[in-house]
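Recall that a protein's primary structure is simply its ordered list of amino acids. Everything else, from secondary elements to tertiary packing, is in principle encoded there. The following example makes that idea concrete.
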Amino acid sequence: MKTILIVEDNEKNMKLVRDILRHNGHATIEAPTGGEGVRLASEKKPDLILMDIQLPDIDGIEALRRIREDPALDAVAVIAVSASVMPDDQQKIVTSGFDAFVTKPINLKQFLDTVKRFLESGRARS
């Protein structure tokens, strides 16, 4: 069973993502803030991280930067999950180092395909 860390401050979004992942046989760890997400990623070493961008303490881009500083998490893919659909926002998110971008509201098939792809292959090495 693969473990996925969900970093999301909105309870409804957290429940939706958690329910989808658990229904598909994955274990989940949950963090409501970017700081908590960084701490849990470091402690638990999840197989995949789903990161909201708009978070109450540090944003998802800063949380990603801190996660990437931990060599033990180098192989863990981090997928941005955000309602930011403006092209400039998406570009900023992608260039900040996320492995993929999934928009909210979640398209179930696209979401599950993306999760599956990164759980099977991990991060692409450049």
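DSSP finds five helices and five strands in the chain. The beta strands are 3-7, 27-31, 48-52, 77-82, 100-103.
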